[in-house]
Amino acid sequence: MDDSSPILSVKNLAVTYKTRKRDIDAVRDVSFDIYRGENLGLVGESGCGKSTAAYSIVNFLGPNGRVKSGEILFKGEQLRNRSEADLRKLRGADISMVYQEPMSALNPSMQIRDQLAESLIAHRGFNQKDAFAESLEALRKVYMPDAEGVMQRYPHQLSGGQQQRVLIAMAMLNNPSLLIMDEPTTALDVTVEAAVLDLIAELQKKYNTATLYISHNLGVVARVSDKVAVMYAGEIVELAPTREIFHNPMHPYTMGLMRCLPDVDAPKGTRTLHPIEGRVPSPANLPAGCIFAPRCQHAEPECLAGHPHLKEISPGHQVRCFRAWDWTAVKENWKTEDLVPLKESCPDRNGNTEENVLNVKNAKVYYPVPFKTVGGLFGMEKRSYVRASDDVSFSVKRGRTLGIVGESGCGKSTIAKAIVGLEPLFGGQIDFLNVDVSKPLNKRGIDTIRDLQMVFQDPNGVLNPSYSVGDQIAFSLRRFGTVPPDQIRAEVERLLQAVKLDESYYNRLPRQLSGGEKQRVGIARAISTNPAMVVCDEPVSALDVSVQAAVLNLLLEIQNTRNTTMILISHDLSSVRFFADEVAVMYLGHIMEIGSCESIFQPPNHPYTTALLAAVPRADPDAPHSNIRLSGHVPSAVKPPSGCKFNTRCPFKIGAICEQEEPSKRDMGAGHLIYCHLTPEDLKNKII
Fold this sequence. Notes:
Strand 1 and strand 2 (about 25-35) form a beta hairpin. An 8-stranded mixed sheet has the order 6-7-8-3-9-10-12-11. Strands 18-19-20-15-21-22-24-23 form an 8-stranded mixed sheet, with helices on both faces. It has a 4-stranded antiparallel sheet with strand order 2-1-4-5, with no helix packed on it. The protein is built from 23 helices and 24 strands. With about 700 residues, it is of the alpha/beta class.
């Protein structure tokens, strides 16, 4: 097959699911081509049909799903109506998949070597010895640290990044012609994500593999894709080369997605996020006319009456919109429109805007691990600890936001839980509103609990599925006596309106809400006591970009109208730049750098901060990419390295001093502190 023909050609694809009431069309009229060595990015909100379209290629639709119409041509041959035996030969050989959740694709009862070798034995007839050797080489090709050791391990003994690399190695074992990747980096840290994206680009170039890359992260798509298809409610609404999509989007939905994105290069207050109103319609209840019209700010009567077809506006640029040629003035207006002015902060409750609401001093949170016997059977027992947060100190002023960033396992959530009393302190002190709150939650006063609330990452874990939304918020009002009993119903409705939900949500159960709506309920309950501080632990990490924008705007509005102090824990540095005033960068339980947002996001900064910033995917295909990458893993918090805790991974390590001596803090001025042995000049230039 020559390179002028597509590896995969999907034409007018329609996918239907059978339900008890009727057949539901989940995907309609989807067409695209992918050529050898080309990466097609497939983007859109949850429920848009991205994964359904991809899974239909290899018939992973489940027992109630089927391809209703259209063609799926792989290397010019029709895949529709092929037998399961034929498709099984293709899967893992000519067509491979990498899933969003690696643990769902890895067998927990088999060693990694056996799972890798299985593909070679089944598809290429290798004997076990040769299959193990080839599998080891595959792990090395994906830059797996300690590849020999990983071969002997089980999936649960690997980190998320390692598991994902195993899946990529498995997918590439048979040098497939087509690689389908379904949100492969969504659950990964930004540093691991950057390494995986580098790996994907390198393997694609080396093996000339055609790739279908599914993601809701436009920054990732801008980095890895040659062209982009934007899906909405089961249809492709725009398809174009990557640069064209990002620099000249023609469909209002595409432009809406881009207006939801915070920019890591834009300081707080210089950018306004514009979430798309409404939500993706259910495939069972699609609107008449253009399916995006109910959410489109520029819909005309013809949009509500007729259904637009995908048409080519310029070479390679297809758009499904009646007004696709008429967006220049609108886009220019969006670029130049004035920022929505932020409301002035309310007067401080005590008239002192410089007051520290929270002071954390040398806080330590250790978790004991099982005893180890030292000196034989009757020797002494030695207690070891996981040093989750070690000697952490910072303060937060009234009405300000402190962002805490770092990789998974660095201690961000641990210190947050210690602040709200969900984890006991091993050492140190926490003062909140001049009250010592170092004690656990059950020993704190009711006033302290009322004034210090938390928004959790997963609202499903904190909302009782058996009680209505209104009852759960009302319980908080009743418990803390926020309003008189006869005013509780009205106050709940006011809080729902404050988080952009109407009074009809009062009687709804959590299962009747979307993820973004559940998170808004969690925020409403957190602010119901009018707290002085709210701790937000990854509040938008699992949400679509439009819902993320709405939640960030909501938190910012709450802060500016109530003068609420906040802590924002996040691995998304773009969200932190949009929302935070000060930032603390944590690594292995220690603060590596702390200071104002402006000082953290510009040189000079700590080498770890430099690596985090270099890994952030930007929604601009022309943005320069730094080649600074972290190697290895975060060391064990039970036996952390001596000296600087970051020395085992630091790309700018200067020698033995980094391994032997803990760095003292360098005061860079204006409250900007860096814990590093490098000189300020070296920190600024990153040239040793």
